[in-house]
Design goal:
mainly alpha; globular; disordered C terminus; 15 helices
Length: about 300
């Protein structure tokens, strides 16, 4: 059982399930607090949650100081820019379009990995898997909302959300490029606290400061989102540092996030129910993961055969 819990596929699916629960929590939290400030507090708390698991605090702070450039670079892309642009973009774009663009993150991860990581090149099979997954995301998004276009603002919203995807994908590349830097848990803790603090500071001139929120619902959502982010990002950073893991292949699992999100909404929300078109999209996403993993398993088998004595 312990070995099963360490399997990359299981951990990737679990992290994606955790991320899929964020939509409900964010919706609740934003009823009581402004977007940037809520995100900043959420991620700063996430970093604090992880810190006690990183070993000796004095040694941890010393390592963070020694690797501050790595931390600042990652915090800029993985938390600050990603979530600042995400929250700004979703305020300008209809929900269905937002779901499609954010759901396209595996495509951006594959492109940036191809450009910046020498051992993670695009192949026809990877592109086929990503294309199937993207088609599934589009179908699910279309089944859950309608498109509405207002002059001007959607264009900028779409551009901002695309840049958010680029920032998040660049964060994945940075984690891999600096494999010999900070341990994954400590790196995640430091970048979440740094990025979260940056979002809080950014929120002050635009949103002011929110005090005296007395709603238990707000603190439950904030607590869950902070815990979820701490666990999900830590799992992802650990997986990205594993030998043989490719950014492009690992991020294809993120196609599961809209699937889990749709299923959770069917379970939790009274007015949500399964539709044939959404199930078709899920089927395509499942097929995309099969295509990817058939390729991955074949490569592993070939590698084992190559090492076996003739």
């Amino acid at each position: 059982m312990k070995n099963f819990l360490k399997i990359t596929t299981f951990l990737a699916i679990f992290a994606c399930w955790l991320w899929s629960t964020s939509f409900v929590g964010v919706k609740i939290g934003l009823q009581y607090q402004s977007p940037l400030q809520f995100a900043g507090i959420r991620f700063f708390l996430s970093g604090l949650y992880i810190l006690p698991f990183c070993g000796n605090l004095m040694k941890s702070f010393r390592l963070i100081r020694q690797n501050r450039k790595e931390v600042l670079r990652l915090a800029l892309f993985q938390t600050f820019l990603l979530y600042a642009m995400f929250y700004l973009g979703i305020s300008l774009v209809p929900a269905a379009i937002t779901a499609i663009i954010i759901g396209a993150s595996p495509l951006f991860s594959a492109i940036l990995a191809h450009l910046f990581l020498g051992d993670d090149k695009l192949t026809f099979r990877k592109m086929g898997s990503i294309s199937l997954g993207m088609t599934g995301v589009v179908i699910i998004a279309l089944s859950r909302g309608s498109f509405s276009w207002a002059e001007g603002k959607e264009f900028w919203g779409i551009l901002i959300l695309i840049l958010a995807n680029v920032a998040g994908s660049m964060g994945n590349v940075i984690v891999v490029k600096y494999r010999m830097g900070l341990p994954p848990l400590l790196l995640n803790s430091a970048q979440l606290m740094t990025g979260g603090l940056g979002l809080i500071l950014l929120s002050i001139p635009f949103e002011g400061l929110s005090f005296g929120i007395n709603e238990p619902e707000y603190y439950i959502s904030l607590g869950w989102l902070s815990f979820m982010s701490a666990v999900a990002f830590s799992i992802w950073f650990i997986l990205l540092r594993r030998p043989g893991i490719k950014v492009s292949e690992l991020n294809v699992w993120k196609f599961l996030i809209p699937v889990f999100g749709a299923v959770l909404s069917w379970i939790i929300l009274k007015d949500e129910y399964p539709e044939a078109i959404a199930l078709m999209g899920m089927l395509l996403i499942g097929l995309s993961l099969i295509v990817l993993n058939v390729n991955h398993n074949k490569k592993n088998k070939d590698a084992r055969n190559a090492k076996s004595p003739a």
